[in-house]
Amino acid sequence: MPKTLPLMVQGTSSDAGKSAIATALCRIFAQDGYKTAPFKSQNMALNSYVTLDGKEIGRAQGVQAEAAGILATTDMNPILIKPTRDSESQIVVNGEPYGNMKAFAYRTEFYHEGLRIIEEAYQRLASSYERVVIEGAGSPAEVNLNDRELVNMRVARLTNAPVILVADIERGGVFASLVGTLQLLEPEDRDRVIGVIINRFRGDLTLLQPGLDWFEEYTGKPVLGVVPFIPDLWIDAEDSLILHRYQGQRETPREIDIAVLRYPRISNFTDVDPFFVEPDCRMRFVTRLEELGEPDLIVLPGSKNTLEDLQFLRETGLAAAVKDLHHKGKTYIVGLCGGYQMLGDSIHDPAGVESPLQQLDGLGLIPMITTMEQKKTTVLSRGEAVFAKEKLTVEGYEIHMGQSAYSSNEFPFIQMEGRTEGYCQEERQMIGTYFHGLFHNDHFRTLLLNTIREKKGLPPITDRPSFVALREQGYDLLADTVRRHVKLDTIEEYMKAFQEKEVQV
């Protein structure tokens, strides 16, 4: 097999578009016939992805593996950091929980172990793939952290990868962010940057050209491309920083109003992405009582700290409002994972797995009690559900610490091999399940939305879009856009040239 050619994508900040550019490159290399894998040494995210063997990695690397046409493995994201509270996170190593750590302890005590884990994972990938697209995190110019960082230039040196620096022009100050980042890098790291990509550009490129010319002359670094903003690109995000972009629909009038409760530790919020492509749905993320109103559907999404997010709902009055809407019969309520646990009678955490809070009463809308346990459930799931008088197959994935027990469950939602899962009482307009990805099942989503339409006296919509197909089209759209606007031949030349140099560690 030819020697692996790595390429690293770093950004001037979080949410600069690193993940999207890396996803596009994974697709492009795969389209060009190269066996390609993504890699992110250390990922801090509450949106995660379950591999075929039931392990957990960052969602972006799962998506990038899909774009490359391969199955995701834990080697693609050997360290996942999932914040549970301020300055404390659960550390997931090679797909399994390693323990909860404070930020200072992680930095001082885990560094050398982390470096070993990262190097071993990368070497396994490098032995099996012709191209490895490496994604950084945040910014490489965090001068207060760079002596012990595990995700940016240290990984570029470890893998001898050339680096592309990405900046988001929508934020403003794009040239200042690029120049400032380059100037704050150590000289040897600055030399590793082969050029920059300006992302999410809208408008007339001729107006930007003088700035591009100035940048190249001032820094000596080429502009490898200016990638235009791509509307309606349905590729899963990993970082809650992206949630500000989800606000665009909140004032758009539609026939079905959906409110998603956005608590402080919301996780796997991309569960609700399919509603964005529905022609009759207006979806809003709600953090305050006065924003809730009387929606047709309320979604309680996943949480990385279920008890404290439940307490947030109580303190804001949202918990009482959800119960009131339920008792009035005005609203369908769906709880996913942590949101499902909140709908039960109570949640217990005697060992402090997620929180120092040991017990809280739930909303009392589903007859079950949840107890947090040290062992995490991570599994791809499939079963048969009955909804709206139809039997259908539903697929998803489970990621949760708690186990739920029913005092009585006459209304199980999903029949799986050897067990039932979840709760569905259609007359009470109540669904709870551990299945992430429930709404990605096109048939179920169609039935749910048409049930709501029928309740409102509206005719059904039978030709709803397939979200799975739209996501696959999104990979191609992203790749095609990058092909048109980025100097891929130049990047390829640098990738080959770098592998002729001695590896610097």
From TrEMBL:
Annotated active site residues, numbered on this chain, are 337 (nucleophile), 436
Keyword Translocase listed: no
Q: Which residues cross the membrane?
A: none
Instruction: List, alphabetically, the InterPro entries matched.
Output: Class_I_gatase-like (IPR029062), CobQ/CobB/MinD/ParA_Nub-bd_dom (IPR002586), CobQ_GATase1 (IPR033949), CobQ_N (IPR047045), CobQ_synth (IPR004459), GATase_3 (IPR011698), P-loop_NTPase (IPR027417)
Pathway named in the protein's UniProt entry: Cofactor biosynthesis; adenosylcobalamin biosynthesis
Residue span(s) of domain CobQ/CobB/MinD/ParA nucleotide binding: 7-233
Q: Which Gene3D superfamilies match?
A: 3.40.50.880, P-loop containing nucleotide triphosphate hydrolases (3.40.50.300)
Please state the span of the N-terminal signal peptide per the UniProt entry.
none
The cross-references to SUPFAM superfamilies, in alphabetical order and at most eight, read: Class I glutamine amidotransferase-like, P-loop containing nucleoside triphosphate hydrolases
Superkingdom, according to UniProt? Bacteria
Q: Recite the UniProt keywords alphabetically.
A: Cobalamin biosynthesis, Glutamine amidotransferase
Recorded hits in Pfam families, A to Z, give:
CbiA, GATase_3
Domain spans labelled CobB/CobQ-like glutamine amidotransferase? 257-443
Q: Would the keyword Manganese be found if you checked this record's keyword annotation?
A: no
**UniProt similarity note:** Belongs to the CobB/CobQ family. CobQ subfamily.
According to its UniProt entry, the function of this protein is described as:
Catalyzes amidations at positions B, D, E, and G on adenosylcobyrinic A,C-diamide. NH(2) groups are provided by glutamine, and one molecule of ATP is hydrogenolyzed for each amidation.
Protein's UniProt name: Cobyric acid synthase
This chain's source organism reads Brevibacillus porteri
